[in-house]
Amino acid sequence: MVQTEKSKFTLWLLAWPIFVELLLQLLLGVVDTLMVSRVSDDAVAVVGLANQVFQAMMILFMTVASGAGILIAQKLGAKQNEEARTVAIMATTVSGLIGIVLSVVLYKEALPLARLFQLEDRLLPLAQTYISIVGSGMVLTALTAALSTVIRNTGNTKGPMITAIGMNIIHILFNYGFIYGAFGFPQLGLTGVAISTLVSRLLATCLLLFMFISAFERRMTWQDLIVFNRKLFGAILKIGWPMGVNMSSWVLSQLTIYTVLATMGARELAARTYLNTLESICFMLGYSIALAVQIQIAHLYGAGRMKEAYRSGYRGTWIGLGLVCFNSLILFFTFKSFLSFFTSDVDILKLGFSCLGLALVLQPGKMINMGFGNALSAIGDTRFNMIISLISMWGVAAGLSYYLGLHSGWGLAGIYVAMICDEYLRGLLVVIRWRQMKYLRRAEANKVNAANLKTGASVTESAGTSLHA
């Protein structure tokens, strides 16, 4: 049984289902972008901006889900299965309640939200339709995110992967039917894409709930919905609220950047949306490694295996960096064909081609930042990430985007330069922080102290330095 538990949390077994899941989720976005581009480039611009709005709203429940996921992996590593189960229940119910509130707000306030981000008047009706329909299902997004995070951090990364496969198949079929009027569906354009998104998320939520019921040694029951442990919920928030601020900082800074893009025009907005889709394909393998490393390190940290946790941070990040660099080279040589497949607008194509080199330089910086940043989060060192994010994302990414993009007239290229500076600055800072091993030293010292209390020996000073061995 011990060997089975260890093999369950190996990097490869954790990473490959995450990669497939994220790839399929990305394909859902690519299918959206590709099929919506057949409606119009204006519709693509609306979907790109609307998705940024949804990501901003998601922070409220992802704060709980992310903190809970790390705590679950730590508790399972420490063999505290009942506490891990309680954390999972609270994360799901609280996320669902937050999702209900967000669904109501997005459905009723779709038009004011669209106006808030300086969209051109001709795009407002499209934005109102898409935001109100997809946004009304935010409760499904909340439940899907919480359930996937919980299930994944128990070591079962295949479950969310299977869900992603089913979700993509349904979404593609419904998209095709609603956009082209196939299979007897009414031809609804962007409205049909929104409905398709809603239906696929509903089915994904149902499947994840089925998996969630038996995710722990003791099955879930209806009575568990009212379970609440103040101490454990406090532990969730202690880890999660800095992560929430970090995510908020990223999403809101991206919204600010998208607002700057919107003032440049629909072509710049559409070009960034297309580029972002292709960049995500390039980065996906590295991102899956970073998520797997976070789960693995949290489990090792909970189990008291500090030396292995420290080494895993380096191993996972360097593997991810190699994969990202390799994918960047592939994208460099195939980019023209990919982008031409999405749009035939000459101005959008020129914008995309002119920013290709900058987009690829951005990717290794993102991997270093993501790999070591997730490693820090896995051991509970989330406040550091929060502080550097607030400073760099706003002072460098958003501030420099405005200065270079609008004030200096660099346009989309200026925005990419700003994002590159932000990612590499934060990447350097998290590497330095990981090497300092502050939280690992503290946990190792606590473990040694506890062992010494049992044996009556004096406290040694070898806890911190032994991590380098």
UniProtKB/TrEMBL annotation:
GO terms for cellular component: plasma membrane. The keyword RNA-binding does not apply. Keywords: Cell membrane, Membrane, Transmembrane, Transmembrane helix, Transport. The chain crosses the membrane at residues 12-34, 54-74, 86-107, 127-150, 162-183, 189-212, 232-253, 273-297, 318-342, 386-404, 410-432. Its main location: membrane. It is a multi-pass membrane protein. The keyword Transmembrane helix applies. One of its GO terms (molecular function) is antiporter activity. Pfam families: MatE. It is found in: Cell membrane. CDD domains: MATE_like_8. NCBIfam families: matE. This is MATE family efflux transporter.
